[in-house]
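Exercise 3.2. Students should predict the tertiary structure of the chain below and write it as structure tokens, then compare their answer with the key that follows.

Predict this chain's 3D structure.
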Amino acid sequence: MAAHPTDDHERQREALASARSLTNDRSTLASSAMAAAAQRASDHFAARDVAAEEEGDRIELWGRRIGRALSLAAFIGLCVYLYLNYVR
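Answer key:
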């Protein structure tokens, strides 16, 4: 059974609209990718990802924030230690 001509026309129009939107977004791809990564990191360390899911225990929320900040400090300390002892 052959496809109806109007169905083909609608699919072609949809495909062209998608292609146009991709070419318009391509110019801001690098800057928006960096901004999105920075926003995700900020949301992670502020525990906004958990706050959106759970509207409950504030102590648990602050515990997550403190734990994530301490893990970041430990990671930076480890990087400094490795650099000073093995790279320099």
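Discussion points: The mean pLDDT is 82. The chain has one domain: 5-87.
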